[in-house]
Amino acid sequence: MAYLSDLMGKPVVDIEGERIGYLKDIIVAVRGEMPHPEVVAILVERPGNTLEIPLSHIAVLVAPAISLTRHLAEIVPYEPGMYDLYLARDVLDKQIIDINGVRVVRVNDLELARVNGHFYMANVDIGNLGLLRRLGLAKLIQTVASYFGRKLSPGIISWHDVELLPGNQPIRLRVPGDKIAELHPADLAEIISDLTRAEGGKLLESLDVKTVADTLEEVEPDFQASLVESMPDEKVADVLEEMSPDAAADLLAELPKDRSQELLNLMEYKEAEDVRKLLAYPVDLAGGIMNTEFVAIGPNLTAEQTISVLREAAPHAETIFYIYVVDKDNQLLGVFSLRDLMLAKPSESVNNFMHKRVVTVNLLDSQEDVAQVVAKYNLLAVPVVDDQNYLHGIVTADDALDKIIPTAWKKRLPRLYH
Amino acid sequence: MTYWERLKPIRLRFLLLLTVVGPGIITANVDNDAGGITTYSVAGAHYGYSLLWMMPLVALALIIVQEMSARLGVVTGKGLADLIRESMGVRTTALIIIIMLIANLANTVSEFAGVAASMEIFGVSKYISVPLVAVSVWLLIVKGSYKSVERLFLVASSLYLTYVVSGVLANPPWHEVLRAAVTPSFHFDAGYVTIFVTIIGTTIAPWMQFYQQAAIADKGLMVADYAYEWLDVVVGSVFAVFVAAFIVIACSATLFTHGLRVETAKDAAVALGPLAGEYASILFALGLLNASVFSAAILPLSTAYVVCEAFGWESGINRSFKDAPVFFSIYTALIVLGAAIILLPIKSLVQAMLDSQTLNGVLLPVILIVMLRLINDKRLMGNFVNGRIFNIVAWAMVIILIVLTIILIITTIFPNFLG
Fold first, then answer.
1. Do B220 and A412 touch (CB under 8 A)?
2. Which of A380, B175, B396, B407 is most deeply packed, by most CB within 10 A?
């Protein structure tokens, strides 16, 4: 094991023992199939220039002086490849994502390991001990600490469990954030909140449309807006299609008017129409927080027929726990739950087992009123109707309660300056 | 459609402007803090209008420095501490952060001194006012929301105009003021050089670059917002120096003309009473109180953020003490120490204030050199590196500052060196 900080600045000598420069950086090759990148070359600082020397020329790497196997004139300089990382330049002192800890941490040092004659980038030191080592105070502080019967913990995480921030990568090194994409959207949202907006935006940009949509739904609209600010319009439009219409409408409402119009034009017609409807209402009214992706059927279906309709409609619906019954003009006639449906006989008409006294809210009811209704009747979602009892959408319980009980994430939002 | 709805487009545009504008104006307002007001008062009372000529130059220097900080912020999207750590490693970072910690502690002390002084004018003992403000500030930030605090203070910063009113009430001979503002002069005596460096140090304080850039990164301002941000910086800087100039004018017109020597902003406020009227005196004191509380709220907080940002420790007022121990320790320690030092029986509070401003002046060249290195880094800034002329002006400024600092150190050690 060797630390990058220990190796940096070490003299590099040729086969005669003549000093040719000092170690400035270590170059590793990142290959998709290997969890730990391999050291391939070193960068040597010489008076007036730098020189990349391949590992094959190096006799001893971990030593007070790094010695080469040949003379300076015989060195064939290493050609840096597309997938190479310069550890000191690209990783050391930078922020990285700790996948297991779900947080953003700063790299204090890097640990190299030797396996079968090859050197690998093994671990990342994110602890205070690494910081002290680089200040040359590690031994002193450790002695003082042990005097008081305490021990400093090293704070090491495996390279396998970290992900570089896109902004720090010289080029796209791999399939965009494969480790990141496995995180829960709520965790991803938390990581993004740890970053500045510019870095958070770059991270989002590297993810696929579905992940971006899920993650954005976890953060507050004004933060969403600043995150997508630098994203190309086509991608934002794709993300908006992927989001539920109410979340998409919230995001669009935060953007400047001409940009949101442009985005709506780029979106698929049907999705854009859904969002447009929602945008017509202020965000704090039932009409503004409602969702237009619900399941509504006619009154003459049987339970069995309904189940097959449901199977088709389910993937696009926000919730399938309630099925709404409407006439051909879309006037709300009744509602029944998934449970009602399961308990009904297959041949029974929905007319017979639906509840005709439906709890509804009006398009222009405030979010507080909706929350009251949802809480009072223990609903998972409540239908939104206009004065003529036409069904326009539903408000799910989590959207209604959002105002009263903010998402856990929201509590973290007020940082220093905004 | 209701009026409220009809107003929506205007409201939105105004909000949009507010979302961009802020970092520059807020930073510039905190700039005229207790230490600043004291420095300007003493400068006016001791040297009359003869220092006024440097104010336009100080404004220019402030714009140059804050513009670089704004540009670093919008292009990299990172705070200054972050950039220093990433580009210069642990040792340089540790050095700069430690110096900044000391300077900011001194600045915080001076803010509480300002609280004590201004409240004493209204007859409130410092043993009541200082602990009260310290606890309120701590609670306001930890339990309240920073955003509302910021807005409150932004509105309160209109109080700075009270200094302009004080200056006008003092009825200075305007033609003489204008002549002094364009006539450079310089004396080689220790007091003069000290006040000279101190004015620069208090107007272009190192914490400002850290604070402003972090605010810009946090707001997520980008290159596209740069034009607005530039305006924000210029307006803020000009306003700050404008107010400073009026403090100098107010004190020159009254105290200097009558040959009164003052040591503190409080002396100045009290002395203004009989000379320029009761209102001038009260306004002066109110301005001092507002400035002190505002800065006492912001400085410890931004210091804690900067330290944690540089070393990668958890930070944020919304976390628990267990999650972010270093952050809370620094934040709390700065407030407690700042308040405690004022309450200890130390003879001259104003010395603490003036010293911290001088320390700022000495620190400034170090921060500037670091900033110039960062902003000229092509890898970091791309096409947004400094132009040739900009660099020449900026480096000339650094050299002048270093020369002044050296003169200051020499005159402090050998008071008779310059005769």
1. no
2. B407
